[in-house]
Give the backbone structure.
Amino acid sequence: YKRYGKSECSRHSITLKQIKQIVLMSIQRNAALSSEGKDRFIKHMLSASSSKKSAELSALKKEAEKLTARKLALAKIFQSLYEDKALGKLSEEAYSELSGNVERERTEIQERLKRISEQLGKSQQLTENAEKFAELIRRYTDITELSEELVHLLIEKIVVHERDCVTKTMRVEIYYRFIGKVD
């Protein structure tokens, strides 16, 4: 707002006291949830990121299984083609064309499996980060005052949105380290 004026951003602000209270309540809530049960808290954090993602991950795992099965089938097909060529049942031209098709499909499958593996690895990283955060925040179940060190340890950033004209409220988003925004 200071840099670009009213044309780029609306003027909105919040007091330090209000921000501290919001952050403290959020940390206390997450710490209490974490102390109730680590697995349940992790599941809550991961589901907060999206239940849609879990459906996507399930679909990716199924696709990986199908692709792996197809890759094994292609290996058998390739072996059969080679045997047919060696026994003279298949001409050189037919063998070259068919083996080229099999090799192309196998390469495509390997590339797709690699991309799926990377996506599943990112999901695993999210779970590991959620576990780290659950362990970290569990230590702060009894906090009553917010310190600068605690904020730097737990929070990546805080976003204050513009005041809603209808409800006269401001939305504040807290992005925690390791896991991002938790609703």
User: Anything to note?
Assistant: The beta strands are 155-160, 172-176, 180-181. The two ends are 27 Å apart (CA to CA).
